[in-house]
Amino acid sequence: MTPLEGLAVFAAGVGAGGINTAVGSGTLITFPVLLATGLPPVTATVSNALGLIPGNISGAFGYREELRGQRRRILKLGVGALLGGLTGATLLLALPAAAFERIVPVMVGLALVLVAFQPLIGKYLRGRRARTGVPARKDGGPLLFTGMTLASVYGGYFAAAQGIIYVAVMGTLLDESLQRLTAVKNVLVAIVNTAAATFFLFVADFDWTAVALIACGSALGGQFGARIGRRFSPAALRALIVAVGTVAIVQLLLR
Predict the structure, then answer these.
(1) How many other C-beta atoms are found inside a 10 Å radius of the C-beta of residue 213?
(2) Cβ proximity of 97 and 166 under 8 Å
(3) Which UniProt keywords apply (predicted)?
(4) Which of 6, 159, 168, 254 would staple 114 via disulfide (CB 3.0–4.6 Å)?
(5) d(Cα 48, Cα 211) in Å, to the nearest integer?
């Protein structure tokens, strides 16, 4: 890796750390840059997963105020994130890349629809509960755990837009602010990336220069993303998620 390529990887790490913390889809910045340096796709994927962990942790720390009172939720969903991350990492090495690439844009697109129409969906669900007399479950029930675990499988395989899918699922099933959901998302992404990277350590080859550069850059970017993202209003944050997600879909379709 040349010095110029190293600088590009570091800068991509900063950008990915910031975007991952505030929205998600930071992998769509780092992954193409790693490919451009000549890394094979699998090596780029596993190196990226390990390198982004410091950024995930940094972002989660930046949202520590929004994490207050959510310990039980995080512990429960964290189990699914751990299992899903390990499953997705296994699938990365067992399945051809084309198997998931066909459905990734569809998954991201569905997530964007859920995020964009979350206020209307929430209003409809609250009205339905009021008519039927069935109280809302604060933990989201089995449907939330199942949906988040499946999203974690995807995240362990290819992390692009994982955060957007998390926010979409939680936003549909939980009556919480986007900022608090974003805080939980950051913790779960950190768990998935750590689980997947730990698995990859034993079975895949890393480019340790790329890992170090992304790690340093993403840790820095995570703090920037938390400071900026926490200032967004719900409408602005929702618009940013949809905008970034749309770019993600276009990039995935053009790969």
Answers:
(1) 27
(2) no
(3) Cell membrane, Membrane, Transmembrane, Transmembrane helix, Transport
(4) 168
(5) 7
**pLDDT tens, residue by residue, 11-21:** 999 988 888 88
For the record, the structure tokens of 91 come out as 């699938």
Cα(151)–Cα(147) distance, integer angstroms = 6
Give tens-digit pLDDT for 179-196: 898 899 999 999 998 998
Which tokens go with 98?
């084309």
**pTM exceeds cut of 0.85:** no
**106 CB-contact burial (10 Å; exposed 0-12 / middle 13-18 / buried 19+):** exposed
Segments of the chain scoring below 50 in pLDDT: none
Measured CA to CA, the distance from residue 45 to residue 138 in angstroms comes to 35
Q: Which two tokens stand for residue 249?
A: 């879909």
**What pLDDT score does 235 carry?**
75
| C-beta separation of 112 from 221 below 8 A | no
Residue 30 backbone phi and psi in degrees, to 5: -75, -40
Contact 122, 149 (CB under 8 A): no
